[in-house]
Amino acid sequence: MNELQTKSGFAALIGRPNVGKSTLMNHLIGQKIAITSRKPQTTRNRIQSVYTCERGQIIFQDTPGIHKAKNKLGEYMVSAAQNALKDVDVVLWLVEPSTFIGDADRHIAELLSKINLPVILVINKCDRVKKTEIPDIIKAYTKSGHFDDILAVSAKQGTNLDDLITAIFKFLPYGPLYYDEETVTDQPVRQIASEMIREKALRCLGEEVPHGIAVLIEKMKERKDGSITDIEATIVCERDSHKGIIIGKNGQTLKKIGSEARAEIERLIDGKVNLKIWVKVRRQWRDSELLLKNYGYDRNEL
């Protein structure tokens, strides 16, 4: 690719928890990089993925939902989202298709008013409303701030995603690619694997437990003959009662988490996986700076 004809740059996806940022990024990339679930605050770290086409390269940064932090983990997540705005060329603000703008979105609008970056308002989940309702939604949001472009999309159904890519490229500088054309993420496989286990736990467990779990990959090693990758992981929770829920009656819940995670990791690495998962209790780990660092949530690295 000729760097005088290609554009390359960074785009941050921000928004409230559960507006579909990770789903959108996965669909744009065409591969699952970020985990998703219906539970808020699924994304905890800033996750980077790479979209490459003949026009150039977009490096997407998926961020945790901006919310009112209740513990040190929450503070880390909000910092990760806000810090992403320092290093990008364009911001994609994802919102849901509603004329009601709550306190959380007003807070984000205020945050965006203080940065000198182009902002694209992305009204996601537009498949949930009639097309005739979109103009009123746009009108409601334009009262909260200035936008350099506005698009209504559906990440789930793939609606208007090509238009979104075109809109992003408008704001990127000309220059060489940051990554080779085959790269889709800079995330280590080990980290993606741990997130996949956490995703399956989120989907298999009730409402109370998921926010209080972390997943550590203790070992990930391919056997000498290349036939199988052995992975040993630990799900960390905050209470003994949570440990019982995660394991389930006769170990059935943990088996289901393991089985579904193993299948997903096998697709990721395109090979067989032998996955073993343990469950440990670490009380109030979400408020422990030391444990947060151990589990990969270090504010000094943001």
Report the count of strand segments. 9
Spell the H/E element sequence: EHEEHEHEHEHHEEHHEH
User: Low-confidence segments, ≥5 residues, pLDDT <50?
Assistant: none
Estimate what percentage of residues fall within beta strands: 15-25%
Task: Characterize the largest beta sheet: strand count, sense, and whether it forms a barrel.
Answer: 6 strands, mixed
Distance between the termini: 32 Å
* Spatial strand sequence of the major β-sheet: 2-3-1-4-5-6
Question: Radius of gyration, Cα only, in angstroms?
Answer: 20 Å
Dominant shape: globular
In percent, how helical is the residue content?
25-40%
Mean pLDDT across the residues is 89
User: How many helical stretches?
Assistant: 9
Secondary structure class reads: alpha/beta
